[in-house]
Amino acid sequence: xxxxxxxxxxxxxxxxxxxxxxxxxxxxxxxxxxxxxxxxxxxxxxxxxxxxxxxxxxxxxxxxxxxxxxxxxxxxxxxxxxxxxxxxxxxxxxxxxxxxxxxxxxxxxxxxxxxxxxxxxxxxxxxxxxxxxxxxxxxxxxxxxxxxxxxxxxxxxxxxxxxxxxxxxxxxxxxxxxxxxxxxxxxxxxxxxxxxxxxxxxxxxxxxxxxxxxxxxxxxxxxxxxxxxxxxxxxxxxxxxxxxxxxxxxxxxxxxxxxxxxxxxxxxxxxxxxxxxxxxxxxxxxxxx
Amino acid sequence: xxxxxxxxxxxxxxxxxxxxxxxxxxxxxxxxxxxxxxxxxxxxxxxxxxxxxxxxxxxxxxxxxxxxxxxxxxxxxxxxxxxxxxxxxxxxxxxxxxxxxxxxxxxxxxxxxxxxxxxxxxxxxxxxxxxxxxxxxxxxxxxxxxxxxxxxxxxxxxxxxxxxxxxxxxxxxxxxxxxxxxxxxxxxxxxxxxxxxxxxxxxxxxxxxxxxxxxxxxxxxxxxxxxxxxxxxxxxxxxxxxxxxxxxxxxxxxxxxxxxxxxxxxxxxxxxxxxxxxxxxxxxxxxxx
Lengths: 289, 289
Fold this sequence. Notes:
Chain A is α/β, with parallel strands linked by helices. Chain A is built from 13 helices and 9 strands.
């Protein structure tokens, strides 16, 4: 199986590296061409300047881009040239509606589509330890599973098309709440002048232990907010989640709080920082009090 | 070193088991005598009906009780008979002020006091994998470290007397926020009719991964709320945390929200359930909407 990868951002580049290492990656494409050319040399794979050209050359097209519109534009381009019987796997975080729309476009070409958003941060993408939530046809998933395993430690089939994105929405809602929980607690700790590194070590080992504390606790308390996961992107995801929740008439108080906090941070110029920049706000509040 | 253990609740009984297994436990005491007698037979250790009698017989007294008043009453009793040079280790979750008060009482008898609250749930107590946050004299900690290691996977010296309790307060604040985050997200998932077991498995492997989701996700979504960690006890802890935060003029919005939610649940008769019973409230809200 020959795979092509579209979208080489912080997540996509890490994924492409692992696909190449496992011998699956044949071709890559990125909107910013320079990025693709550099990575193609590094990974020794073909680089294409048009999505249509890449899609004609491979059996499996993987993509990881930023927004709903980008996914649909990429899928429209893929549909022009892709061979019947191929499989398209979208690892972007977008709405379930977009997943269903993309699947419908490709179904007309007798091409399978899987929505397969991931979680695990840039570390997970780089180390091939992502968690992947997959919606769509189970047979198609089994065919591409060896490829996905090159990037993921955990691949879970959630159900029909769109259910991968629905699961990812749950993941993003939980991330928002955990960001609130960890930043609130660590700002409280710092105000008590506890030794932060020791505190983070101790708390990580107990019932409050979590990925975010372990991976972002020491950076945020040292005022380092390099992404990681860009705050403006999580903000975009949470607005999708809120729309889904409103449709179902479901309250998401922590998500609402986080959207508001992120908007204050984006206005203040911190949208390109890691989501742990929420800590700035928690500390500012304390300093102002 | 001969150790005695006072307080054999859900946490204390697990700890006593591990102390006995490691050969340190000589004696136990519990306010409800029957519990102590049963456990004493099981562990083949002495049982005392008075704290003063136990304290006279051992080199290290460990205690794990529920409230500030209980700790001070136990420490007053210990102080009547304990040998100079002994060490008292309090694993209860109480205020830093109580830790300082207890240390002062024992200092008069030339006895060291460590505040050493733990996290890791009943599972951690049973399996000897607790995280322990210790305040007080470092030399005293080194002397009892072999004993504490029988119960803990992680023992962290936080600083002077009271700093163990301050760290635990941070832990309890974080637990409250994570409870909010996990219950909000899982109720959102259930409203979307996602397959919950698979969802919990997938999300656990990514950037939203956390102890609480892994250990309570499947029970709460199956409407099982056996403690675990009693909601009424966490409520008590959070009120201590809020008082500390108010003193320092620090806002703790998630903690405030959780105290309010717990009070609704306690009024409705769920105070003896696990803290994951917060899920009841999240689901009820959705059903009402």
